């Protein structure tokens, strides 16, 4: 507001100087004009004719700045464009272009031009016809290419453009006036006439102008006299009725202008404040309506701004708040300050209001305070308040007492479905909800997840503070969890310190984010008790229920509990996730396979096989293999387990990371014993599980293992699934950079399975793109698949990456992959998996004996 008044003061002085044309009174301050050097590009435009054998020699040079303004045109401009050079200088370049698509600064054209290429654009001749010409970049000059030479120079405000003042008066809705005391003659700017809805040529006296003031005419005369006599400036709010009978709120200001130590003139402004008046009236009406509505209902009504300052609260809310917290709230109080002595309640209430600001509206059932179990339960409705631009101004809360409804309308039923301590649904109701979800799942395609949570070391709270405090802790923690979870999801307390959350219709990546956010909430939740701060962490098992899974809710809960137990034994304060095991795999089969995996890891005797990758587009020397893992049968002569049989069990019991390391360790040990392979081995790939991808120490493990190997690090490649790269792009990028520092290569396996494939192929720092099996199915007879594969291959090739076509099962698919230019192929048509011991160097028979083999 001060800056605005200063600007008006400067305009008054400028207007006075022009009005009186007096050079003796200079301005008190001068604005600053900043001059800068724009980016300038020099373009060559050459006429183009497709029917000529030789290019047209007519051309012209144009210098265009980064705002699209022609800075300079060569003398040959008239021969090409029909304009003289002076006619184009200072004009926008669109004047000579046929359409927006021909703009040299458009994204598509700019990239080609900056790469040194010529582009064909359509230009408009001065005579009105269109022609095609080649445009190329001759020279570019940028601010960053030279030292900064911008200067700041003062400008005399007395020379300000009258049009600028007139424009400012119209936009800011004010006018300037001046009164010559000696002649009693008043001068008005155009803005004064506009504010009173008068024509500029209207002749009017100061006495007649006073008649437009509905109130305060005597006050205006008195202020003018006092300003002349004492020199005190004045400021007065008036109700003005314009010539069109429109009522406006105006602010009249004035101040003396002295010359030679005496007051010679008065000058000031008339500012339209009608919009502010209307806003104040609207706010007053809204406050009155809100107050009347609040007093007409027994519900608890409160409204706050984004800083949790009370805008309004009715008597029931203030009375309930005072009885619970001992302080009576009034509009203008801040809720966080009122709850300074109740830190647990303050955090919960703050979280509820913040949720309203972020989500718009929601409903929650709870007492006004969690620490008092005797308070009635209210159904609180939260709704965000926004302005016409969609900006959040605050939120309103309406709480309806539902205590009687709970007590009388089936209280026994309510208690059989809800946990008595936290108010969350109990195990019985959660099982029923999970069963309904499983039954509905057969009619829809979506991904559901089950999160099983167990508080770490919670039993120590009972030893420190007793069971009553533990119940209060659980009750307030449940309230905070209820705010964090989505409304469609089901949160339950199963028993003691265990909770469960059903996450419905949610992609796996999003479900993992929700699980991590809940874990973070529990870790940051602090409960104050007698000066002590009670806090703990939680371990969780996230069961991804997608595809073929058990239909028994108890079985799903059991699997999620196993994952939670694995998270606890792995170090606590973490989430362990895995897909649900199929119905065909019962507990006996799971236990048997788990024992096989543990025995193989303990003895270090995994069954390793390899499958060859063969060049498709051109011949490449050397061996290119991918290592495959199998689990041996063990002492019980059980069947050998393939990945689809042992990986779900390994992921469920947190053994996938150990399997990855054992495969790499065992492969390198075998290669160390076959050093004749060292010249031929060009690629040795290892599949990586998600647990290893998210393991910060994996790159260090690879570096330590490769340091003991005679084979070059660039021979080895780690293959990361595209699904994992999509879920955790930042973690995968960090891992790729770490492996590159070690010397390994990285491959993106399963590319093409999602819409993110093309972005990942272009941006992710990997060396090899392995196409997904879905991309290869029916490649030979599906033209759409061919276009998709070709596009992915071209993107990878442009980014300097090799491509591998997987699952090539027949000659037709092989021919099509070769036609599309794919670099390598893999599949049963080219080679089948073989035992690693079958990988031998080439044998050469000489007179002195055989070498290799």
TrEMBL record:
Xref: PROSITE patterns: EAL, GGDEF
The keyword Kinase appears for this protein: yes
Domain GGDEF: 446-580
Keyword set, alphabetical order: Kinase, Transferase
Pfam family, one: GGDEF
GO molecular function ontology, one term from the record: cyclic-guanylate-specific phosphodiesterase activity
CDD domains, per database record: EAL (cd01948), GGDEF (cd01949), PAS (cd00130)
Domain of life: Bacteria
Listed name of the protein: PAS sensor diguanylate cyclase and phosphodiesterase
Organism listed in the record: Marinobacter santoriniensis NKSG1
Classification of source organism: Bacteria, Pseudomonadati, Pseudomonadota, Gammaproteobacteria, Pseudomonadales
């Amino acid at each position: 507001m001060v800056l605005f008044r200063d600007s008006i003061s400067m305009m008054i002085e400028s207007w006075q100087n022009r009005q009186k044309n007096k050079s003796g009174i200079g301005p008190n301050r001068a604005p600053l004009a900043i001059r800068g050097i724009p980016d300038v590009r020099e373009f060559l435009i050459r006429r183009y004719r497709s029917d000529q054998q030789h290019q047209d020699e007519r051309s012209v040079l144009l210098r265009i700045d980064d705002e699209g303004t022609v800075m300079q045109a060569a003398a040959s401009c008239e021969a090409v464009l029909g304009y003289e050079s002076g006619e184009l200088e200072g004009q926008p370049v669109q004047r000579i272009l046929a359409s927006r698509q021909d703009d040299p600064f458009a994204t598509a054209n700019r990239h080609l031009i900056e790469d040194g290429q010529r582009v064909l654009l359509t230009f408009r001749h001065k005579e009105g016809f269109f022609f095609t010409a080649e445009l190329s970049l001759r020279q570019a000059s940028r601010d960053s290419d030279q030292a900064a030479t911008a200067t700041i120079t003062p400008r005399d405000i007395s020379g300000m453009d009258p049009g600028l003042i007139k424009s400012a008066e119209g936009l800011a809705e004010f006018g300037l006036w001046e009164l010559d005391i000696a002649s009693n003659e008043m001068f008005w700017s155009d803005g004064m006439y506009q504010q009173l809805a008068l024509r500029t040529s209207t002749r009017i006296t100061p006495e007649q102008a006073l008649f437009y003031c509905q109130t305060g005419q005597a006050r205006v005369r008195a202020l003018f006299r006092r300003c002349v006599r004492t020199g005190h400036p004045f400021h007065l709010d008036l109700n003005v009725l314009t010539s069109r009978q429109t009522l406006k709120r105006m602010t009249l200001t004035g101040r003396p202008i002295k010359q030679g130590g005496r007051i010679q003139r008065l000058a000031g402004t008339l500012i339209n404040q009608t919009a502010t008046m209307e806003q104040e009236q609207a706010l007053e009406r809204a406050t009155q309506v809100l107050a009347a509505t609040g007093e007409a209902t027994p519900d608890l009504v409160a409204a706050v701004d984004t800083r949790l300052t009370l805008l309004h609260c009715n008597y029931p809310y203030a009375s309930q708040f005072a009885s619970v917290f001992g302080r009576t709230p009034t509009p203008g109080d801040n809720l966080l300050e009122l709850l300074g002595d109740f830190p647990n309640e303050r955090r919960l209430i703050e979280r509820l209001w913040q949720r309203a600001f972020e989500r718009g509206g929601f409903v929650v059932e709870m007492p006004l305070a969690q620490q008092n179990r005797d308070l009635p339960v209210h159904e609180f409705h939260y709704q965000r308040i926004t302005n016409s631009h969609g900006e959040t101004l605050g939120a309103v809360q309406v709480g309806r007492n539902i205590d009687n409804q709970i007590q009388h309308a089936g209280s026994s039923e309510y208690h059989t479905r809800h946990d008595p301590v936290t108010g969350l649904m109990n195990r019985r109701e959660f099982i029923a909800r999970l069963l309904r979800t499983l039954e509905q799942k057969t009619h829809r395609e979506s991904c559901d997840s089950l999160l099983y949570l167990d508080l770490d070391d919670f039993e120590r709270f009972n030893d420190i503070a007793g069971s009553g405090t533990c119940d209060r802790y659980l009750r307030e923690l449940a309230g905070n969890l209820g705010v964090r979870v989505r409304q469609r999801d089901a949160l339950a307390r199963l028993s003691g310190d265990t909770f469960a959350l059903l996450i419905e219709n949610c992609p796996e990546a999003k479900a993992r984010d929700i699980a991590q956010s809940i874990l973070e909430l529990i870790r940051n939740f602090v409960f104050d008790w007698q000066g002590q701060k009670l806090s703990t962490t939680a371990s969780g098992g996230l069961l991804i229920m997608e595809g073929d899974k058990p239909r028994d809710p108890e079985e799903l809960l059991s699997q999620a509990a196993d994952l939670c137990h694995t998270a606890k034994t792995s170090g606590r304060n973490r989430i362990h996730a895995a897909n649900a095991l199929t119905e065909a795999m019962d507990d006996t089969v799971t236990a048997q396979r788990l024992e096989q995996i543990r025995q193989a890891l303990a003895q270090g005797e995994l069954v390793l096989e390899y499958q060859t990758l063969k060049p498709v587009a051109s011949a490449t020397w050397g061996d290119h293999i991918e290592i495959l893992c199998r689990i041996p049968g063990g002492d019980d002569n059980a069947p050998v387990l393939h990945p689809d049989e042992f990986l779900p069990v390994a992921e469920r019991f947190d053994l996938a990371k150990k399997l990855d390391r054992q495969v790499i360790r065992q492969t390198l040990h075998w290669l160390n014993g076959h050093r004749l392979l060292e010249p031929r081995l060009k690629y040795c790939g290892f599949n990586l599980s998600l647990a290893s991808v998210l393991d910060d120490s994996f790159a260090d493990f690879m570096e330590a293992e490769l340091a003991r190997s005679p084979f070059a690090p660039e021979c080895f490649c780690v293959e990361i699934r595209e699904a994992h790269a999509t879920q955790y792009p930042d973690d995968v990028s960090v891992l790729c950079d770490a492996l590159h520092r070690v010397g390994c290569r990285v491959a993106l396996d399963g590319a093409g399975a999602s819409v993110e494939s093309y972005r990942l192929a272009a941006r992710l720092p990997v060396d090899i793109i392995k196409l997904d099996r879905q991309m290869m199915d029916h490649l030979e007879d599906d033209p759409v698949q061919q276009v998709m594969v070709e596009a992915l291959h071209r993107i990878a090739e442009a980014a300097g990456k090799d491509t591998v076509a997987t699952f090539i099962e027949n000659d037709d698919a092989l021919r099509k992959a070769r036609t599309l230019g794919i670099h390598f192929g893999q599949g049963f048509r080219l080679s089948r998996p073989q035992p690693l011991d079958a990988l031998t160097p080439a044998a050469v028979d000489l007179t002195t004996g055989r070498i290799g083999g």
